[in-house]
Amino acid sequence: MTDSSTHTPVVEFSDVSLSFGNLKAINGVDFTVNPDELFAIIGPNGAGKTSIFNVLSGVYRPQQGSVKLNGHQLLGMRPHKIARLGVARTFQNVELFANLTLVDNLMLGRHVKFRYGTLAAIAWVGRARRQEEFHRAAVEEIIDLLELQAWRKLPVGLLPYGIQKRIELGRALAMEPEILLLDEPVAGMNLEETEDTARFLLSIRQEFKTPMILVEHDMSLVMDIADRVLAIDFGAPLALGTPAEVQSHPAVVEAYLGGQAAPADGGGH
C-alpha cells in the first residue's frame, strides 16, 4: 500500500459539496490519492460516485471545496484543459468509435500529445511524421500490455463487449494520464473477463506507475486490488480506510443492507 505520509498527493479532493436544487449530490467529501495508489470509491446506486468523477473531469463545478491535481486547482477549468493536465477517464457505457479500428481508437487517446497542426498532418512530413511514428509506438506498447493484438485491424463495433471495455481502458491509458478514473470497468462482464481486467489494472500499475480512482460495484474486485477505499452514501462519506476496515465498518454494512445511511456528521440514526 502507498504510504500517504511520505508522498505529496496526486489528487486532493477537499471538502467538496455539489447540489442540484435541493438534491445534495456530494456532501462534504474529502480524500487524497497518492502516487502509484489504486483508490476505490464505493456506495449504493445514487450515492454520488459518478458525480465525484464529473467534478474531477470538469463536467460539474461544485459550490464548495477544492480539487487539485499535482497542486493545480482544477475547479473552473474546462474539461479539455483538465484532460491535457492529465485526467483520463473510462465510462460505465462503452464510448468508442465503432467504425474505427482498435489502433485508430487508441490513437485518438494520444490527441492531447499531438504538437503539430492540420497542414503538417495532411503533408505527413518532418515533425508530423516523426510524432506519428512516436505515438504509434506508444499505442503498440499498450496493445501488447492489454493483449489486444488479435483485434488490432478490426472495427471495434464488431468486437465482443469485454474486448471493447479493454480498448476503452487502453484509450484512456494512451493519454499517459497523471490520474486514471475508472468508472465501473467490469460492469456487464463475466467472471473470466473481470479477472482479466483486474490483472490488467495491476499490470498498468506495475508498468506505468499510474495512480487510479476506481468506482465499482463488484466488491470482490475492490477488496482484492484497492489500496484504500472511500465509502459514500447519499453524497456523504461513510468510511475511509483499507478495504478490510471499510468492509467491516457498521455504517457501510448498514448502507449496503438497505438500511438508513449514517448521517454525514457520524451521529445516530
From TrEMBL:
GO terms for molecular function: ATP binding; ATP hydrolysis activity. GO terms for cellular component: plasma membrane. CDD domains: ABC_Mj1267_LivG_branched (cd03219). InterPro entries: AAA+_ATPase, ABC_AA/LPS_Transport, ABC_transporter-like_ATP-bd, BCA_ABC_TP_C, P-loop_NTPase. Signal peptide: none annotated. Keywords: ATP-binding, Nucleotide-binding, Transport. Transmembrane segments: none annotated. Coiled coil: none annotated. Residues 11-259 form the ABC transporter domain. It holds the Pfam family BCA_ABC_TP_C. This is ABC transporter ATP-binding protein. It comes from Dietzia natronolimnaea.
